[in-house]
Here is the input.
Amino acid sequence: MAYVITDTCIKDLLCVDVCPTDCIHPKKDEAAFEAATQLYVDPAGCIDCGACVPVCTSDSIHPVDELPEELKQFAEKNAAFYN
Here is the structure.
């Protein structure tokens, strides 16, 4: 997984719009959107392009290898959403 979304995500979907591999979910038209507290990056689909980072207005997207210790659990949370 190249990028991880953390709990400061405001679900504005700007990252979804720029993702070339459609690996950020849930989207507004998906059943899980309302219940989800944040969006999640699919570790199998992320190609490490970084397009999502500059459009994230809540600074919620981080490279997995640069996650601070207190945010490391979000790598597992993002992956778990797709399992």
Notes: The two ends are 14 Å apart (CA to CA).
